[in-house]
Amino acid sequence: MATVESYHNLMQMLSISSKIVGVEIWTAPGRYRPASYYLSFHVIVYFLSSIYTLAKYSNDHQHQMKILITLGSAIQLYVKFFVAIKRGFEFKEFTELVEQVLLAPFQCGSPREVAVLQRTGRVMWIIFRLIATSFLSTAFVFGLYPLFAYYANGTVMPLFLYELPYYDWSTTGGYVANMLFQVNLYVLGIVGAIYSDVIFILCALYTMAHADIFMLHLHELQEILNDSAFMENDNSAMNHKWKQCMYDHQQSVKFFNSVDDLFNIIILVHVGMGLFSICDGMLLVALTDWYAAYFFLLVLFFQLTLYFLIGHYVELKVDEMYKTINSVPWYKLPVSNQKEFVFLLCRQQHPLILMVYGFAPLNFATYMSVG
């Protein structure tokens, strides 16, 4: 029961985050909640404020670049928000599929099956704590930027450089209004970033865990086929294991295809807007001495690398699946099973890797090319 309980505990943490950002996948999938309208109001005001500030400083291009460095993150988070709302039932169905097809059947299985699930649960919790700690700690450090600017340069600065229309932050009232709005949106953005990244990694990790279970059963089938004495006496165990492997492969393909389908637009926007913000940040580092640009670059590189790292491991897992399938002594199978094995090989020829909306694979080769 430990694996299912651990999964439920993680789902509970994500459910709390979903209520904060108004994307309640598990309690109200596909529905707009009061928190959804609250977040949308802040994002719309942010976009209007950015346009207003860009127009106000139209002659200062470096200042415009400092304003635009947050635009990429805002767009990608709001797109993730809309995708999660629109496809809320599908996200909920996938997380339920993980429990029904993967965790519940194998949590009391063989020691090797249980070990796969326990390892995946431990890794997932480690990644969740790492992401949460990284985002919260960097958010706290960046939150000290106005204090740093005041004590270092003697200037009063807001958290971000976009301004609310008609609320000039050079006045006391305008500064307070801008800071309250920016801190509020900042907190929502941090929670949303943690929430969206953890869901992506969770779906990918448990998909790879199911692939591990499938390969584990293939190894068991291989052991049966190589045991000639056992095959001569009883074929029922082999038939049962073969049917289990075929079913596992169908489910693994379903898992991989579902993850790619659910996250393809999210990955595209994440990569595209991440590159836009990184280019902006690198120009600011080259042209100015604005230290906040280094902070933004650190966070953006971390997020972009995280997605490509997960895509790389998914690709390695698919390659491992292919090698494991090829290692099965298929010629020892009955003729009817050999024909089914051919279909399995044919299906494996189609890539199961994560894609950037079909434009490029989400792997290190693409990462190095776009970097």
TrEMBL record:
<dbReference type="InterPro" id="IPR004117">
    <property type="entry name" value="7tm6_olfct_rcpt"/>
</dbReference>
<keyword id="KW-0472">Membrane</keyword>
<keyword id="KW-1133">Transmembrane helix</keyword>
<dbReference type="Pfam" id="PF02949">
    <property type="entry name" value="7tm_6"/>
</dbReference>
<feature type="transmembrane region" description="Helical">
    <location>
        <begin position="291"/>
        <end position="314"/>
    </location>
</feature>
<feature type="transmembrane region" description="Helical">
    <location>
        <begin position="35"/>
        <end position="55"/>
    </location>
</feature>
<dbReference type="GO" id="GO:0004984">
    <property type="term" value="F:olfactory receptor activity"/>
</dbReference>
<feature type="transmembrane region" description="Helical">
    <location>
        <begin position="126"/>
        <end position="152"/>
    </location>
</feature>
<keyword id="KW-0716">Sensory transduction</keyword>
<keyword id="KW-0812">Transmembrane</keyword>
<protein>
    <submittedName>
        <fullName>AGAP009706-PA-like protein</fullName>
    </submittedName>
</protein>
<dbReference type="GO" id="GO:0005886">
    <property type="term" value="C:plasma membrane"/>
</dbReference>
<feature type="transmembrane region" description="Helical">
    <location>
        <begin position="262"/>
        <end position="285"/>
    </location>
</feature>
<dbReference type="GO" id="GO:0005549">
    <property type="term" value="F:odorant binding"/>
</dbReference>
<keyword id="KW-1003">Cell membrane</keyword>
<keyword id="KW-0552">Olfaction</keyword>
<dbReference type="GO" id="GO:0007165">
    <property type="term" value="P:signal transduction"/>
</dbReference>
<feature type="transmembrane region" description="Helical">
    <location>
        <begin position="67"/>
        <end position="85"/>
    </location>
</feature>
<keyword id="KW-0807">Transducer</keyword>
<feature type="transmembrane region" description="Helical">
    <location>
        <begin position="185"/>
        <end position="209"/>
    </location>
</feature>
<keyword id="KW-0675">Receptor</keyword>
